[in-house]
Design goal:
263 residues; single chain; binds guanosine-5'-triphosphate; EC 3.6.5.2; 6-stranded mixed sheet; disordered N terminus; P-loop_NTPase; G protein activity
Length: 263
């Protein structure tokens, strides 16, 4: 049962809204798409708008990009993701992992992002091979740290190396990564300077943004906009006919290990 205002209920019952340009062109109201994807092997996906799964024509030709949001615990990965999706900041988020879908038009390219927000606890609980599979699934990466948490910043070089080793071995193209320093509003608790963040990103050939997911939508938008700009057309496959159902299936296939978490 969907609560009247699902955003008040935390990640566990989170629903995200996606707009279909195809529908807008046809004069229909934007669709609210319930994307509630506990990543369990046996997870079943029950769309509230089944029609969205069957959209033929132009919507099926959208470019798509799989984005993995990574980082230490409590840095604001979910806050940033939810800000981008909904323009809202809801304060507390549960510990479920989700894949959200959201459209963004950048430089005339309409991109359907599939954004996988992995809670740190889950990231740690998984064997390394699960992380590797998540990395293989993704076309691009958002690495978040908190400007108030030095340790969350210090782990980034290793994460970037790990991603590059996994992805760039397979392709000549650079892997699109943006590094995000979050919680910019907490000036008095800052322990990582903007300069350090920028230099690290430069040295690792990544994009860089400092934002406050708590304070503004704009920063979150800039992050995903910047990421999209780093994704070459060749990576943005026209995944014809790959509908949400296909994505869910492929995610189930990724996870061979059965999860015990319940909804
Ligand atoms: N002040 C401030 N607090 C923030 C900001 N972003 C997130 N928070 C808070 O930081 C805490 C952690 O946010 P989450 O989005 O759950 O962080 P996460 O990285 O997804 O955490 P894990 O699920 O542990 O991996 C929550 O209490 C948020 O309200 C921000 O920009 N500013």
């Amino acid at each position: 049962m969907v609560p009247a205002d699902p955003w008040r209920c935390g990640k566990r019952s989170l629903h995200c809204s996606a707009e279909s340009r195809w529908d807008r062109r046809r004069g229909a109201a934007p669709l609210d798409m319930g994307l509630r994807l506990p990543l369990r092997r046996s997870a079943s996906f029950t769309p509230e708008h089944p029609a969205l799964l069957e959209v033929p024509g132009p919507a099926a030709l959208k470019m798509e990009a799989n984005v993995l949001v990574m980082g230490a615990d409590n840095v604001g990965k979910s806050a940033l993701t939810v800000r981008f999706l909904t323009r809202r900041f809801i304060g507390e988020y549960g510990d479920m992992e989700f894949i959200y879908s959201h459209n963004l038009t950048v430089d005339g390219r309409e991109i359907l992002f599939h954004i996988w927000d992995v809670p740190y606890s889950q990231d740690q609980a998984d064997e390394g091979s699960s992380e590797e599979k998540r990395i293989q699934w993704a076309d691009s990466f958002v690495l978040v740290y908190s400007i108030c948490d030095r340790a969350s910043f210090n782990i980034l070089p290793l994460k970037v190396q790990f991603i590059k080793a996994a992805k760039e071995g397979l392709s000549q193209e650079k892997v699109p990564i943006v590094i995000v320093g979050n919680k910019r509003d907490l000036h008095h608790q800052r322990v990582v300077s903007s300069e350090e963040g920028r230099l690290l990103a430069l040295s690792l050939d990544c994009g860089f943004y400092e934002v406050s997911a708590a304070e503004a939508y704009h920063g979150a938008l800039m992050v995903f906009h910047g990421l999209a700009e780093r994704i070459p057309d060749t990576r943005l496959a026209l995944k014809k006919g790959t509908r949400i159902r296909g994505i869910v299936k492929s995610m189930s296939a990724v996870f061979a290990r059965k999860r015990t978490d319940s909804l």
